[in-house]
Amino acid sequence: MGDKFDLVIVGGGTAGWMCAAACAAKLDPARFRVRLVESEEIGTVGVGEATLPQMKDFNDFLGLDEVEFMKATQASFKLGIEFVNWGRRGDRYIHPFGTFGRPIGEADFFSYWIRAHRAGTAAPLFDYCFPIVTALQNRFMLPNGDGNDVRSAFAYAYHLDAFLYARYLRAWAEARGIERVEGRIVAVEKDGESGDIAAVTLASGAQVAGDLFVDCSGFRSLLLGTALGVELEDWSHWLPCDSAQAVPSARSDDFTPYTRSTRRKAGWQWCIPLQHRTGNGYVYSSADISDDEAAATLLANLDGEPLADPRVLRFKAGKRHQAWAKNCIAMGLAGGFLEPLESTSIYLVQMAIMHLLTLMPDGAAIDPALPAEFNRVMDVEYDRIRDFLILHYVANEADAPLWQRVTAIDLPDTLAGKIDRFRHRGHVQAYRDGLFGPPSWQAVFVGQGIVPRAADRLADALPADLLDERLAKLAATIADAAATVPSHADFIARYCPAPAP
Predict the structure, then answer these.
(1) What are phi and psi of 79, to 5 degrees?
(2) Euclidean distance between CA atoms 122 and 117, whole angstroms
(3) What single-letter DSSP state applies at residue 159?
């Protein structure tokens, strides 16, 4: 295969072109040859249109211009995710991309809030979070960088058209030397001795050989799942939704800087505002509702006129037992699927890419320590996201068969322990690896009705009247600051207006 290390990416779409772009940006072209094989005949899923703040980090890592990227992908801003009816019917809360409160003593802010809340003197937790107060008024600004200002204590993500993002990255990557090979794969050739993948054969008869293969073939998992036989670890007993219907609609006047997730009888519905349209979908359990009823529910709850017929997707929650086996790494849907309740799909692709770049082999012989470490860190990512998603399901007041069933499931030990610790003193362990820190867990716990029985004892030292005064002042400061922020629509019109499609 020559002097260069041959990296072959199988499949385009968001996962494939994100990987290709990162390779173009960071791998030495004198040492690595990178090719991406995809077929125009095969469509992409393209429903992952909401992201997390880490996506900005990825774009910055590549060196993308934010304004250009947002115009090219019809993107809008995202300050968090609103959950409607998830705890009790009529309730709503936002999981923000920011912290709650500011330091007001020796204990953490959340402990002080618990103490005041139990005394009946605190405002709702969400009044102490600038991105939530701002988002609920459909306002947006960039963080101002002044650590003493409440308008600095948040991050932001994007709503975007995933198809346009893949197309944008393709042009960017090809301009930097990535080779695109057009063709539909009809066979996978394996080495008779090692069992490694040697090449993929295209319908034209051509073969593309490589040293390392990245499987971005979607749910088919053409290389890791089909050719190498790495099975899926089934998590559907914890996350029972197995179907989704997606449909775009006309953009509504309610141009929110947040994603909306609304609990339905047999699952939940998403609403993602882009500049040119709104993305919608219903994720549901096919055991609890028919496709026809799901489509009718979705279409009856749109903010604008539908622009197409609903498209049905089937899936199973879980991950491959190994994300890296032999000389093949799976990314995106090829490696596993967790429903997009917390917009984690693109994040998991990003993490796989970053770990690959760190653990990239330097020769055709792959040190076993590399896939072992890759699999370890990806298992941590998937497991912690899984637990966070399960929390949304089990912390609800059941009113339909699906929701009654999930409140009675046996929880993973990792989640059961976390819930017990939170109920006791509001403790959430911060960890080095994995997504979702304490503010995320605090938002979902409290938003869905789980409030700790007591606060950290360090919070007792502050006199009650002084605590109430500081909480009231903070809530007023945040409210006043939010009132100075422009509307989301006005900010985008000035900063990154996209041309009409």
Answers:
(1) -100, -5
(2) 5
(3) E
> pLDDT per residue over 33-44, tens digit each?
999 999 987 765
pTM confidence score:
0.96
Nearest-CA neighbor of 497 among 51, 72, 48, 59?
72
User: According to the model, what pLDDT value does residue 44 have?
Assistant: 59
Same domain, 224 and 329: yes
411 and 423 belong to one structural domain: yes
CB 494 within 8 A of CB 146: no
Within 10 angstroms of residue 74's Cβ, the number of other Cβ atoms is 22
Distance set, CA 101 to CA 62, 425, 451, 456, 473 (Å): 33, 18, 17, 16, 11
- Each residue's pLDDT tens digit, 82-115: 999 998 888 999 999 999 999 888 899 999 999 9
User: What are the structure tokens assigned to 266, written together?
Assistant: 């047999």
Rounded to whole angstroms, how far apart are CA atoms 318 and 235? 5
Q: Which residue type occupies 355?
A: H
Domain carrying residue 227 = 5-49+161-234+318-366
Type and span of the H or E element at 84: strand 80-84
Cβ 29 vs Cβ 177: under 8 Å? yes
Report how far residue 145's alpha carbon sits from residue 131's, in angstroms, rounded to the nearest whole number: 14
Phi, psi of 200 (to 5 degrees): -115, 140
Q: Give catalytic residue positions.
A: 78
Give the end of a domain, one of 314, 345, 374: 314
Can you give the CATH number for the domain in which 181 is found? 3.50.50.60
Q: How would you label 362-372 residue by residue, b for 16+ Cβ within 10 Å and e otherwise?
A: eeeebeeebbe
Last residue of a domain, one of 282, 314, 346: 314
420 and 282, same structural domain?
A: no
Q: In terms of domains, do 434 and 392 share one? A: yes
Residue 373 counted as domain residue: no
| Residue linked to tokens 């618990």 | 114
Name residues whose C-beta falls within 8 Å of residue 455's C-beta, 6 or more positions apart in sequence. 107, 111, 112, 114, 115, 118, 425, 426
Number of H helices and number of E strands within the chain? 14, 21
Q: Are 176 and 34 in contact (CB under 8 A)?
A: no
Token digits of residue 317: 């929650």
Neighbouring-strand partners of residue 50: 159
Query: CA 468, 471, 472 angle in degrees (round to 5)?
Result: 85
